[in-house]
């Protein structure tokens, strides 16, 4: 008996030691084996997983139940080389804890381009939902390539590394791969703790890897840190330790969680579709973003007027109030490009109507704005109110006849509740809905000649959960795993996940709802106006930037939210949506005067600049504040307008080459690790650094200046930075702007509208390097016609400075630029007053030299930009052209 007990104890000790060994992963290297519910020790171990209790030192966010290294996984078989790359099958012999897991998968690996790798894994037995967006197709394997992909067979995993230096970008051997009907989970190591993207969330520019969960399920919600918001972008850019950068994109539109942990590691967790992953090799951040946009499509070219100042309010409840806002803004000397109306203008909050009592003269008001050189934008929503009696609301009845609405399980239009009361929801995946949407837009535009469309509430938002009739009790409404959505149910403040759209269930298409509406709206405006469309959408998904811009939603009027707008704007540019902005002064709550001034200064450098607030808050139009504050807002707005030719040129580069308009400092200076977390400053393109005040009561601001020459537009001499932080004065009327040495920025004399401004003289701001070199360019067209670049109807002029000479080269000229005149050149970095200045060989008539600022301003040039010019300056032998002030 004693001997038997001894043998038992020995076996028990060995087994316990083996269990301890396989469950000895470091806390940060543990991957959750109970994602769908909390398990106790017995339940966890029954899954074949490891368990640690809170009493054993479990930190916040760390999983109590986690995978052991020997957890059953897929095995790779039938590995074959193909004309595209590789293919293989993946088989599983043991089921996981998720129902309906797939026991056999097929994998295809595509070497699509030298810098883009694609890996697809899908069911071999039946077709599953795949995201219906266009991506480039390839016909053969790229060779050579910049990446290396390796696989393990027995316990399937793959790794992607950089061929030139061996940097491992992803490695999925850290946890088992699970693929069930309504649950897919894949984990990977990360190359560093610096990753960016995975929006739309309220985050700093670099994501927090301390057990952070990011949820993707588009939702109508006042932005906050712990919530899923208006958009879903399962794309991230990651740094490697040597400063190289790469990108990863999971093309999946289902509800999703992404879990970040300090290992560093990441877990993708989605509840449908397939695995369709892209890897972009960069090797620098700007190139990664270009490669990503090559896949999803380059952004649309906005009309020039879209870059002006826009004014809106929920609460302009009559045309008289709307006119008053325009008159007071202009009387304050603040340029106003576009006036908007929120849902106030509608008759009973119904699309394609206007209230006959309060807005009876809406068509006349819009024409008045046009006569002032302004534009007008109206809101449209995807929830269509029902007719109260036959014939009372033709848009609803026509849509019903044409079958354009989302349907419930019985095939009837799903009923929800939004602003008009009981509503139905347009199914924009239905081609007939696109035709109907166009017809409704056309009929309304024939009455009210609006210039652009604001599409809101298009997540879609719903004031009841699911529908007025509830939602069925099925697996689409109650999947085995629900991502960490606000409300804990997919139907919360939206429509039933099981409702049906033309190409699939809403369960699959929810995150794309706003994208499909944006496409329909974009196409309708093009056909109706025969000009560039202007569309601003709240809901967003990859490829939105091809059709529309975005604003960051119903943000609170707080200093914290002001700061968060900077990473939000930068990240949207990374997602290929450069026309983006946040509501100046915030939308929800009362903005203090100081906050509104500082927000207007930051917002003057958003690509999309709009002041908008809710009807329950105090007025925050620029003219309501003190003279000092109005002057400060005017000063910032005029600075924006002056620089619009440069911003427009950046949009051209975005449209044609996939560059970003606004970018974080790390995009330009990836080898300077100090920039990797900077998100209280941002750049326009390569050349203009904006350092705003985003904290209450501050009259100075600290900013980081990467190595190089920097010149202040506010005043003062340029300086050479070795990569350092500098504290700058920032009175209430000041936002610090610095031009980077080596660049030339085209500018123009501002005016109250861009229609008027485009007739004014141009300026060049020339910021020289230590060696006296700079370059830049100007893109110009009529600002409104379709496909001007594609048709060749544009002007492109390049500028370069070297050896005390500034020259222009007309790369291409069209008639719109024939009358453009260059009146002023400002040269930064001129150490002494020149002895002689020659304009095309003739002496300059008018110039000023500021010794303290090392700035030479040459005026009254009257040079036709359609003709090439040369400006030369020379010095006495005792002086030189560039002197650095430290």
Chain-wise SSE layout:
Elements: H1 2-22, H2 41-46, E1 50-51, E2 65-66, E3 75-81, E4 85-91, E5 104-113, E6 116-123, E7 147-152, E8 157-162, E9 168-171, E10 178-180, E11 183-189, E12 195-197, E13 212-216, E14 235-239, E15 245-250, E16 256-261, E17 265-270, E18 275-280, H3 285-296, E19 309-311, H4 319-331, E20 338-341, H5 362-371, E21 375-380, E22 383-385, H6 394-402, E23 416-418, E24 421-425, H7 431-447, E25 452-455, H8 506-509, H9 513-529, E26 535-537, E27 549-551, H10 559-574, E28 580-581, E29 583-584, H11 593-603, E30 609-611, H12 627-642, H13 644-657, E31 662-663, H14 665-668, E32 682-684, E33 688-691, E34 700-705, E35 708-712, E36 719-721, E37 724-729, E38 736-740, E39 743-748, H15 754-757, E40 762-767, E41 774-780, H16 788-791, E42 795-802, E43 805-812, E44 821-828, E45 836-839, E46 842-843, E47 846-850, E48 855-859, E49 863-864, E50 870-874
Name its key features.
eight-stranded antiparallel sheet; Immunoglobulin-like; Spasmolytic Protein, domain 1; nine-stranded parallel sheet; alpha+beta
Please give a structural write-up:
The protein has 886 residues and is α+β, with helices and mostly antiparallel strands. Among the domains are: 65 residues, Spasmolytic Protein, domain 1, CATH 4.10.110.10; 222 residues, glycosyl hydrolase (family 31) (Immunoglobulin-like); 114 residues, Golgi alpha-mannosidase II (Immunoglobulin-like, Sandwich), CATH 2.60.40. It is 20% helix and 27% strand. It is built from 16 helices and 50 strands. The strands form 10 sheets. A 9-stranded parallel sheet has the order 28-27-26-25-21-20-19-30-29. Helix 11 runs parallel beside helix 12. The protein is globular. The protein starts with a helix and ends in a 12-residue tail after the last strand. The C terminus is likely disordered.
